[in-house]
Design a protein that fits this description.
The complex is a heterodimer of chains A (232) and B (665). Chain A has 232 residues and is mainly alpha-helical. Chain A folds into 2 domains: 135 residues, no CATH class; 97 residues, no CATH class. Chain A is 24% helix and 5% strand. Chain A has a two-stranded antiparallel ribbon. A two-stranded antiparallel ribbon of chain A has the order 2-6. In chain A, strand 4 and strand 5 form a beta hairpin. In chain A, helix 2 packs across helix 3. Chain A is elongated. Chain A starts with 10 loop residues before the first helix and ends in an 8-residue tail after the last strand. By secondary structure, chain B is mainly beta. Chain B is 3% helix and 71% strand. In chain B, the strands form 3 sheets. Chain B has a 26-stranded antiparallel barrel. The longest helix of chain B has 12 residues. Classes of the chains: A mainly alpha (232), B mainly beta (665). At the A-B interface, helix 7, strand 2, helix 9 and helix 10 of A face strand 11, strand 13, strand 14, strand 15 and strand 16 of B.
Chain lengths: 232, 665
């Protein structure tokens, strides 16, 4: 590898120290489907023109230099396969790496999930929700947390916005990966000018007992089949 | 070596010993000595205090011979039930011709058995723990089989099974009482009797010269049985149990098509997806006194809910190369959804006697359209610089009908019809650039606007003292976000990566009959990675991350019940050192620390839960390779977690030692 080229994530040195870049056209000759669909992906933006000799701006910017993989007839042990490896993602997505080291996190570091468990780096929905995804906003989350999917008789509109309104899916210092860990989580949407009234009911006696969901009241925050105030 | 050769010759008839590796496996153990809160340690580190087994194994059998190859690899750590098994069979010369991919993964998730903490309680316990270890076994099994049926047709069948069982902690707590002061801080748990998800998917794909067509049929069967247990520690000491069974069947049919209309210039396609879901839930809610007899509270007998969901989604897309350097990607999504939910909620009020005193019947229907548009534009005409822009729009028009009747008391009936209009748009602009050999830069700015409008066209009037639920007229969210990445390599052995992000999100909610009120969620994040490789054998990586995040609501300045702004700040430092001392000896050390200082004491108003904590860990290990086929890796580590904001009830310290031995045969 040319050690003067900054697009080389240092991590590659430890993985395939003797490999060289071959260019994404070489990758496309075998991986036709991925190459064709890659242009729809947000990652297609990282392809840079005019960097001759530096081929790691598309496929190899994540998978590492591919010469040994090509020479090995597609030997999977000679290329970074990101289904089992997250360090390549973390070379650019630094803050997510720090989040996965927090107290409450999805088990990426423990090897029970990988970035590709939720994200499709090649496809049009690298972030697994958008206005045009064929699947729903929260489908990635409910593939494991099916009990939160619903439908529920009484729905909580926050979920139609996204699970990430309340949870940080990578990691948090708060339990249940919450973004906020007290009344502010709910008040950011539900506060009124006449707080501590919510709706028409004063909550001044309830707030000291605990949080909206922990104080024995609105426990079914994802949706309830039986109570319009999400209490049961 | 002389000792090893006779050993290997002894095994060779069994293993088919040859020049290429046949088997690689790594048995070993790890043992932790944990002081203070062992359950919190298990929860955060996802392990029991002792763990042993085979950390990894890989088998390269050519058992099928001939045209097929197999791959087998996995892991088996017994105490944590941490198992991985990947077993693949594929055609040697063409992996797409025929393949079977099997996967099994499992692990145990541990939960802390303590609830909340209330500092003011002094004579009674100010925190509680369950006399129970909470752990949930999670497993995932899947098999995928596919191959080519002809020159142009291929198919794939996939089955996946997800299972969970055990006990997990809830984040809603039971009541504790000291005098007249009640606080909800007693831990609560749920017995997960069985979470079983079966998923089947069959796909056929036909490849044309200029495109492809894919047909998929999916079926999901899901069953979830839970028993929620909430026991108060107040004078009444009531136990509340909620027994739920949920069953669901879902059918999904999908057609995807794609065609090169103009070769290398215009690619177009579509997806059409229809989902049909049936769900049913039954629930019993019982309240018991300290003697186990039924008592007043919430008691529901055989509550039932049924759901039907139909959803049709049509999404065409286009990928157009405008000239040499412009790439335009456009997608549209149209969806129609209808959901019907019916529920019956029979309650045994007052002192329960098994007789239903009051029954609520509910029928809620929502139906409507969602249309989304997305456009991405990239320009690749400039050397070393790619700008891009993205726009996304979404429009929703949904009607929600809610009808609730009380069989015994019609004054409790409630009817409402709401027209929901949800409008969203998102704009992004940014660039990637590589202006010099030693510098890479990217930046992006996003603006997002979401507006949810709820108009009640028909509604049973609320009482003067009690609103009905869903009293929001409008909710607007405005988000501004900017982030940038910088990678610099001033020297061949020194690499620096920097990321900065700023975001600001404004929530504006207007309640029926009141003025709108605004809240804010703001943050600044910056992270640095420095990598030094002064020698080929030595790599040092240092990562620093700083996050300053705050949520502000008008309740922060309220005269009656002020709820201070919530801070989610934290700092993190990760350090790692890798040193290959020689070809047979290497050394690795990692250190991580994160800390936050967010706690504000406002216990007279509410239960504060912002975190003051510090967590750090250190691990060192050496890898000694006495031969080409053997690597011995002993390691040592220690760590601690201190959480002052909960009066250190969750603190833990640990030391550990481990030993892993990797054999290649």
């Amino acid at each position: 590898m040319n050690q003067n080229i900054v697009v080389d994530p240092p991590y590659f040195k430890n993985v395939q120290p003797n490999a060289k870049y071959v260019g994404s056209d070489t990758c496309a000759s075998c991986h036709t489907d991925h190459a064709k669909n890659f242009e729809k992906s947000a990652h297609a933006r990282i392809e840079l023109k005019g960097v001759e000799g530096v081929h790691g701006t598309t496929c190899e910017s994540c998978h590492g230099p591919g010469s040994l993989h090509v020479a090995g007839g597609g030997d999977k042990t000679k290329i970074l396969t990101l289904k089992k490896d997250n360090e390549s993602c973390f070379q650019c997505h630094i803050d997510q790496k720090a989040q996965f080291n927090l107290q409450y996190h999805h088990p990426i570091q423990e090897g029970k999930m990988t970035c590709t468990s939720c994200h499709d780096p090649h496809g049009p929905d690298a972030k697994p929700w958008s206005a045009v995804s064929i699947r729903g906003t929260n489908d990635v989350c409910v593939s494991c947390h099916r009990d939160k999917k619903g439908p529920f008789t009484w729905e909580h509109e926050a979920l139609s916005s996204s699970c990430t309104e309340c949870h940080n899916p990578h990691g948090s210092i708060h339990p249940k990966l919450l973004v906020q860990n007290d009344l502010n989580l709910c008040l950011k949407c539900h506060v009124q000018p006449n707080w501590p009234t919510v709706g028409k009911r004063s909550h001044s006696a309830f707030a000291p007992r605990g949080n909206c969901w922990s104080a024995g009241c609105h426990t079914q925050v994802h949706g309830s089949n039986f109570d319009d105030h999400l209490r049961y | 070596m002389k000792k090893i050769i006779p050993f290997m010759l002894l095994l060779s008839p069994l293993l088919g010993f040859a020049k290429d590796p046949v088997l690689q496996f790594t048995p070993g153990f790890i043992f932790f000595n944990v002081e203070k809160d062992k359950q919190k340690f298990e929860e955060q580190n996802m392990t029991k205090v002792s763990n042993w087994g085979v950390e990894s194994f890989q088998f390269f059998p050519n058992v099928l011979g001939g045209k097929f190859d197999t791959e087998l690899q996995g892991k088996a750590l017994i105490p944590n039930k941490d198992y991985d098994l990947f077993f693949n069979i594929f055609h040697k010369e063409d992996k797409d011709l025929f393949y079977i991919k099997n996967k099994f993964q499992s692990f145990t998730k541990y939960y802390d058995n303590s609830g909340g903490y209330y500092k003011t309680y002094t004579t009674e316990p100010n925190s509680f723990t369950l006399d129970k270890d909470l752990k949930l076994f999670v497993s995932d099994l899947s098999t995928k089989m596919g191959g080519k049926l002809s020159e142009t047709w291929s198919s794939e069948f996939e089955y996946a099974y997800k299972h969970k069982s055990g006990d997990f902690a809830n984040y809603n707590w039971a009541n504790a009482q000291q005098g007249a002061t009640q606080r909800r801080i007693v831990p609560v748990y749920t017995e997960q009797k069985g979470y079983d998800l079966h998923e089947f998917n069959l796909a056929f794909q036909k490849a044309y010269e200029t495109g492809k067509l894919k047909l998929e049929q999916g079926f999901v069967r899901f069953r979830d049985k839970t028993l929620y247990q909430e026991k108060n520690q107040d004078t009444a000491a009531k136990l509340q149990q909620q027994d739920e069974v949920f069953k669901e069947k879902s059918f999904t049919s999908t057609i995807l098509g794609e065609k090169d209309f103009i070769s290398d210039k215009l690619l177009g396609g579509f997806s059409l997806r229809y989902e049909n879901t049936y769900g049913k839930e039954t629930e019993n809610l019982d309240t018991f006194d300290s003697n186990g007899a039924g008592t007043s509270g919430k008691n529901f007998i055989d509550a039932q809910a049924k759901h039907t969901l139909h959803q049709l989604v049509f999404s065409p897309f286009m990928l157009y190369t405008l000239g040499t350097n412009w790439f335009l990607n456009g997608r549209v999504r149209t969806a129609y959804k209808k959901r019907i939910s019916k529920a019956t909620y029979p309650e045994d009020t007052d002192t329960p006697n098994g007789t239903v005193d009051e029954t609520f019947n509910m029928k809620n229907i929502d139906f409507g359209w969602q249309i989304g548009e997305q456009f991405n534009l990239n320009y690749k005409g400039w050397n070393r610089f790619t700008p891009y822009a993205r726009a996304e729009f979404e429009q929703n028009a949904i009607t929600l009908k809610e009808d609730q009747t009380n069989q015994e008391d019609s004054t409790n009936n409630f009817f409402r019809e709401t027209d929901q209009t949800i409008l969203k748009y998102l704009m992004s602009v940014g660039f990637y650039s590589y202006p010099f050999q030693w510098l890479k830069v990217s930046a992006q700015y996003n603006f997002k606007h979401d507006l949810d409008k709820y108009k009640d066209s028909r509604e049973t009037a609320a009482s003067s003292s009690s609103d009905k639920s869903a009293f929001v007229d409008d909710l607007t969210q405005l988000t501004n976000r900017f982030h940038t990445n910088l990678a610099v390599r001033p020297l061949s052995w020194f690499h620096l990566n920097f990321r900065y992000e700023w975001f600001s999100k404004k929530y504006s909610m207007q309640k029926e009959g009141l003025d709108p009120e605004s809240s804010y969620f703001n943050g600044i994040k910056h992270a640095y990675i420095a990598t030094l490789m002064p020698m080929n054998q030595l790599t040092l990586v240092e990562t620093l991350a700083f996050n300053k995040i705050q949520t502000q609501t008008p309740a922060g300045g309220n005269a009656t019940l002020p709820i201070p702004y919530f801070n989610s700040d934290y700092k993190a430092v990760l350090s790692s050192l890798n040193y290959d001392v020689s070809s047979s000896f290497s050394f690795k050390a990692t250190h991580s620390i994160n800390w936050s200082d967010n706690y504000i004491n406002f216990e007279s108003q509410a239960l504060p839960n912002a975190i003051d904590q510090k967590q750090q860990s250190l691990e060192v290990k050496i890898a000694w390779k006495p031969s080409e086929t053997l690597t011995i890796t002993p390691g040592y580590g220690f760590g601690k977690y201190d959480i002052d904001s909960r009066n250190n009830i969750d603190d833990y310290d640990y030391h550990y030692g481990n030993l892993w031995v990797n054999w290649i045969l």
